[in-house]
Amino acid sequence: MKILITGAAGQISYSLVPFLCERGIFASKEKLDLSLVEIPPAMKKLDGFVKELEDSAYSSVNSINTYDNINDAVLDADWCLLVGSIPRGVVLNGKEIKERADLLQINGGIFTEQGKAIGSKAKNNCKVLVVGNPANTNALIGYKNAKNPNQLWMAMTMLDALRAKAQVAKKLGCHVDDIYRLAIFGNHSPTMFPDLENSNVNGKNTYEQIGDHEWVENNFLPKIQQRGAEIIDARGASSASSAARAACDTVKNVEHKTRSGDVFNAAVLSDGSYDVAEGIFSGFPLISDGEGNIKIVRDFNLSEFAQSKIRKTSNELLEERELVKDLL
Ligand code: NAD
Ligand code: LMR
């Protein structure tokens, strides 16, 4: 199994690579060939990380190679985890980058080149997870440039789902693992919509158990939508440990059959499900058959409230697509 990771010397990868090397993440028992990609100025730092990975002596790992460009790294890759990009919160040219969408012009260009390389050189059944922000539209740029519809492109919304589960578990005094069918719709941005109305806690409807729409709309929703900003404010850097855990969880959920009665979360190319415009990468509830096939779960009942929120986040994705149309 060849696993390519960009931004490999960054803070997310510092947790993500060790998580991926633990047993049981990938369905295949094959050992991992890690293909770690960075930009030239970060290669020395990456070499330091590789020394630590070697010192960790993972039984799951066959080889570790580093590259300063994706073209040499991507040949026959099974998975590509595209983390490499600039996070918000950093100051560029004397100006702080405040919203993930402000990263579109800065990071978008990275994904044209990477898309082309993945489409032509990675395996035909390669799975790609975009973590770098703005993740949904970066995935669209990569997918369009890859021109290889057999490959599965996704953007990460798993972190939003884990955040939502953690808040529900606190509110209801239950364990996160007892929460089923919690879906993130739309963009990984302040418009995302975490749906509780179709979720259940061990069979009992989550929204009804909370029984407080005011809390859902005015407390829960903004908390999940703004959690990334809350963490940047507190840490002075964007989420990393939780983002790495969510990326690893996405891989694991794609690789293994979804537990009965549940869904997992990622943004995929919309096929028009739930009236989300086709041709944008939107968060949807998904299931995996454990054999490399995932599909959108289509039996969620959406209230007027949910539909209006999903319209808003879809419109934002359409606006982002318009802004990068020259890259598609
Ligand atoms: P970081 O700055 O610590 O690391 C990013 C790394 O990417 C750096 O080492 C940089 O040298 C490298 N890089 C930049 N351009 C590259 C390129 N073209 N090819 C290969 N490597 C390249 O940032 P981080 O905290 O690890 O975050 C990475 C990205 O993930 C950011 O865009 C951040 O906003 C995003 N993020 C997304 C989510 C999500 O839920 N989708 C969550 C957290 C962070
Ligand atoms: C997050 O949600 O933590 C990341 O997308 C980082 C950010 O910019 O908020």
Report on this structure:
The protein has 328 residues and is α/β, with parallel strands linked by helices. The chain has 11 helices and 16 strands. It has helices spanning 11-21, 43-55, 70-73, 104-121, 135-146, 158-172, 206-210, 213-225, 227-235, 241-255, 304-323; strands at residues 2-6, 32-37, 61-67, 79-82, 91-92, 95-96, 127-130, 152-155, 179-180, 183-185, 193-195, 200-201, 204-205, 264-269, 281-288, 294-296. The strands form 5 sheets. The chain has a 6-stranded parallel beta sheet with strand order 3-2-1-4-7-8, sandwiched between helices. Strands 9-12-13 form a 3-stranded antiparallel beta sheet. It has a 3-stranded antiparallel beta sheet with strand order 14-15-16. α1 (11-21) runs parallel beside α10 and α4 packs parallel to α5. It is globular. The chain starts with a strand and ends in a 5-residue tail after the last helix.
Instruction: Enumerate the strands of the largest sheet in spatial order, edge to edge or round the barrel.
Output: 3-2-1-4-7-8
* Helicity range: 40-55%
Structural class: alpha/beta
Poorly predicted ranges (pLDDT <50, ≥5 residues)? Answer: none
- Quaternary: single chain
Task: Give the helices and strands, then pairings.
Elements: E1 2-6, H1 11-21, E2 32-37, H2 43-55, E3 61-67, H3 70-73, E4 79-82, E5 91-92, E6 95-96, H4 104-121, E7 127-130, H5 135-146, E8 152-155, H6 158-172, E9 179-180, E10 183-185, E11 193-195, E12 200-201, E13 204-205, H7 206-210, H8 213-225, H9 227-235, H10 241-255, E14 264-269, E15 281-288, E16 294-296, H11 304-323
Parallel strand pairs: 1-2, 1-4, 2-3, 4-7, 7-8
Antiparallel strand pairs: 5-6, 9-12, 10-11, 12-13, 14-15, 15-16
The protein binds nicotinamide-adenine-dinucleotide and (2S)-2-hydroxybutanedioic acid.
(2S)-2-hydroxybutanedioic acid binds at residues 87-88, 100, 133, 159, 228-229, 231-232, 238-239.
